[in-house]
Amino acid sequence: MFTEAIEAILRDRATSEAVRAIENGGSAASIWNAVEEAGFLELLTPESAGGAGLPLSSIEPIFTAFGRYAVPVPLAQSIAARALLRDSGVTAPAGMTTLAGSCLRRADGSLKAPQVPFGMICDNVLANVDGALLLLDATQAEREPDGVHGSSCGTLRWRSGAVPVALGSNGAEVLLFSAAIHAAAIAGAMDRVFAMTLQYCNDRSQFGKSIGKFQAVQHQLSVMAEHVASAGMASALAFSGTGAVPERLATAIGKARTSMAVPLIAATAHALHGAIGVTAEYDLQLYTRRMHEWRIADGSEIFWNGVVGSAVLAQEHGTIVDFARTAPHCVAA
């Protein structure tokens, strides 16, 4: 029910024209206000606090939809921030809140948050600082863009006087939630890219028939379909836990698998589209650019495969098959 309602808003507000306008410096208020006014930022907030109280498994299709529409505002991050603030006693601030999974504290007390998603347009940042949870005012930060073309990703720096006291010791959960969100976003974007590629191959004719009927093209589409399906399952796994925050090992598997598929999906989609696929006017690049950025966000597959590998080595008994079968319920090292 919630997924369909949000997708209706996204179809109307998050059009490719609207996304391009925001990338070019336009206002993101139309998309943000529509979702906020509908109350959808409180989907993970407990019912006792006026929210929907959805479990993680129910929020995953919504986060995937945000990737499928290349949503250029931190909707998923703002929803997650409310879940992460659950024990702090602090009400979620007004405006757009994003997540910073890894911050650096300097000797002088200042903070640096590299590659913060939506860091250039957000109002607040919920950050992990050495395991502590901090809510930072983004308007007091020095901002520097560091994302791909058209991205609002940025590195933010706060002077020591602008750094508040910690709200709790659950800062590490910020990284997990942010990584799981990016896994879902990748899965959604891949789904859109595959649909565009399949449609193009059916429409584009060469030598008197659609290129989708050539065996070589069909093979490439089949490989794409396998990876897109795997990415969807990996995203669902990341949100399969019963707690308020994605579990570490499930998140590691989900982020590693989705990130791993990005180069192949993006390269194959552009190869099958040919020259039109690299033009600014064509929508494909709206998704492949983001896929590449989300691949490295919160750690690429290299980092998260290391987490999974540590968990494998930590198990005392059983085979790799046993580990794969029970992995969602294991505790990573």
Automatic annotation (TrEMBL):
Residues 177-301 form the Acyl-CoA dehydrogenase/oxidase C-terminal domain. Its cofactor is FAD. The keyword Transferase does not apply. Keywords: FAD, Flavoprotein, Oxidoreductase, Plasmid. Pfam families: Acyl-CoA_dh_1. InterPro entries: AcylCo_DH-like_C (IPR036250), AcylCo_DH/oxidase_C (IPR009075), AcylCoA_DH/ox_N_sf (IPR037069), AcylCoA_DH/oxidase_NM_dom_sf (IPR009100). It comes from the Bacteria. One of its GO terms (molecular function) is acyl-CoA dehydrogenase activity. The keyword Cell membrane does not apply. Belongs to the acyl-CoA dehydrogenase family. This is Acyl-CoA dehydrogenase. It comes from Caballeronia insecticola.
